[in-house]
Amino acid sequence: MQTKLTINGVAATHEVSPATLLVELLRDGLSLTGTHIGCDTSQCGACNVLIDGVAVKSCTVLAATLDGAKVTTIEGLAKGDELHPMQAAFKENHGLQCGFCTPGMVMAGLEIVRRHGPNVSAETIAHDLEGNLCRCTGYQNIIAAIGAGAKAMGGKSNA
Amino acid sequence: MKFGVGQSVKRVEDFRLLTGAGRYTDDLQLPGTLFAVTLRSPYGHAVIRSIDTAPALAVEGVVAVYTYKDIAEYGEVPCLVPLSGPIKTPRTLLAAERVRFVGDGVAFVVAETREAARAGAEAIEVDYDELPVVASIDAAIAPGAPKVWPDAPSNLIFDWQLGDGEGAAKGIAGAHHVASLRIVQNRVAPTSMEVRAAVGEYDATTGFTLTFGGQGVAAGRPMIAGILRTTPDQVRVVTGDVGGGFGMKAFMYPEYVLVLHAARALGKPVKWTGERSDAFQTDSHGRAMVSDAKLGFDKDGMITALQVETWSDLGAYQAQFGPAIQTMAGGRIIGGVYRIPAIHNHVHGVMTNTAPVDAYRGAGRPESTYIMERLIEAGARTLGIPADEIRRRNLLRPDELPHHNGLGLEFDVGNFPAVLDKALADADWAGFPARKAAAAKRGHRYGRGMAYYVEIAGGGSQDEFADIKVNPAGIVEAAVGTQSNGQGHETVYAQVLAERLGIPMEQVRIVQGDTNRLDQGNGTGGSRSMAWGGAATLQAGDEMVARGIELAKTALDDANVDYSEGVFRARATNRTLSLAELATLHPGALDGRARYKPDNPRPTFPNGCHIAEVEIDPETGTTKVARYSLCDDLGILVNPMLVQGQIHGGVAQGLGQALLEDVVYSDDAQLVTGSFMDYGMPRADDMPHIHFDTLGTPSPTNPLGVKGCGEAGTIGAMPSIINAIIDALDGVQIEMPATVEKVWRACQALETRVAAE
Fold first, then answer.
1. pTM confidence score
2. Of the residues A96, B246, B353, B740, which has the fewest C-beta atoms closer than 10 A?
3. Contacts of A81 in chain B (CB under 8 A)
4. Topology adopted by domain B459-596
5. pLDDT, tens only, B389-447
6. What angle do CA B31, B35, B36 make, to 5 degrees?
7. Any idea which fold B286-457+603-756 has?
């Protein structure tokens, strides 16, 4: 079956099976391998993407159900060599080590900004990261990065 | 120099990893790739009567199914340090006639799609005869226990002792007080966020190519060649970005060879990507031990002796370094940097029907430290000596170094009492009573715990390699024999090389992970990379400059040429040649490989003091680590930002083991914790803010003076947090993980006791 999606600003019609998860379409179908699979049980958040501006675990969504949606993946945030303020904040604050959870964390950061605005507290960030696992950083610098990214984004919403 | 040693340079890896341009193993999408799934044993112990693969081959898209008989000619996944003597515990790539743990590989299914491979695996019919199991140390060592290895006399596969048994017994017998504890160190899953994966390719002319997420390519190459019954020159090993390793990814796993076998047999690339359940079942686990430990004190709190007897659960097979973890790796550091007249360490290796146990962040050193730090704090409590004071009395002073610990180690440098004092100041040690009183007003228990750890880092290393190429643009590319798994090696190595050569960091590129580029090196593990790989890189830089000077002498027609900041300069004429010009003039002539091999290779001894404070709500049993601070002596810090990141992550893993994580097998050897729904990973709101400080004494063992920082955080975290909980529970001993339920029960028992009094 077919589903029409705008992915990172590019509108196209994709042939998918009814069982194709969004993350499978992104990774295997479109080679957008920045979105990662970390758990298979929707616990880790490595596969977070934005669907119509809201962070969603792409392993929980069937691609066929998204007809007409706008999807933003980690590949769609930077403008050329210029990182999105949230990405830049991760670099500046050493908010990543192995980088595997990072795309999902950046998306979670954008979601936190959407929910709480530019002056979100560290406690709120830590709480709202309950759906994202990281094994390398101990989260401290991720929390700092999201806080800094939120400020840098000002009042602007996602992407 | 704004990028040199000591500067918190931002990472060169980050742009790639932040924009989705990282290249982890599963990201590799070669045309025509087939997908593989391992069918695993659902039983902890069983004889395989028969395997019917026909139903799998009938599944649309399945192209091959391999069982033991197909790969019987290949070698085994090796144990490099078997301590079991003549009794062997061979792990074949797929189970031959018997499976020994849940997850043991039985068949390898290859199909055109991932779904077909999964469906094929489900269709295979295996006829098992279940056998009795031993799922724990207690079960394995019980009289008459079923044996994991029938030819072995028992499940106690080795017996290892080190130190002064007689002296320790005397010291304990004559002690004024003996702290005596049975200490459990829970089995944990390393749990890299990227699950293991491998892609195999075969070309009749060039041979095999394995792409996998490992901790070094060169060391695995001859091992893979050996298993495949071929020569190393027929095997190329490639590693791209690695999503965390923590020791676990240093090892050989059956799938790495099976994808190569399948690729050759089928003439197409074959990819195996584990799922999280594969990871929980088959990644090497860590810790998994129980110890009876005694620490003797005289009336002044001075330690008289340490006596430890440990049963180390090895799982169903002796893993690559499994037997070494509690013995050669960690067993020699037991007792820490305290002045202990006699130490005796006795380790029993125990086979069980569980996943193999191997090195996990710290690899024996957290375990040894945990035992010692539990004991010293228990002793202090009974003797009525404050936790800081008993350590101050027993820590080795700088004037006592070097110090032989009686277990084959010589502690070289450090100022342990000064590190302790700085840690106390950082932690606001004096302010604790006020914080405890404030918590009491909230109806909460509050406690603090300390750990003084030392680890051996870079131990066992003999040499390391770096290979430099200078291109006509003057870019210096150094290939290194270590492998970043997220630590930021592309950045730190570039820092040290750029500083040494006096050129901008942008002019330096660090590459790793391809045996076609560099086929020598010992990989990353045991916090060795900077001490060894950093030194090799410096040496390679120096040797390149020396070659350049010789070339420039001729080119500039001057017998005296100096080098600085990327420029060769003739003394007499002041004529110059840049690196780029010289590389253009003599293509390849600046290139070369350095082998760093110190005459007297010695490990380093990172050490430090961690202090945790916990607040417990006795109504719910919830433990919150309220404060956490540490002062570490990690020698010279090349990039303090990255070091701090390593410590944060290490502490999180120690906290996870202390409070949340536990790999649980049922009595019938079923894995209960097979997903993130059952296994307690630390999440963001479990973590305290970590206050990081250092007081470094440069290590004399390597040119950079570094000591290693990858494992330190974990080592300090487990004992400091558990000691804090014990303190909050008025001295009631509690074992890891100190879950909400355990802590709640302990609180309830205390309330009952108070009420009864």
1. 0.97
2. B740
3. 15
4. Aldehyde Oxidoreductase; domain 4 (3.30.365)
5. 999 999 999 999 999 999 999 999 999 999 999 999 999 999 999 999 999 999 999 99
6. 150
7. Aldehyde Oxidoreductase; domain 4 (3.30.365)
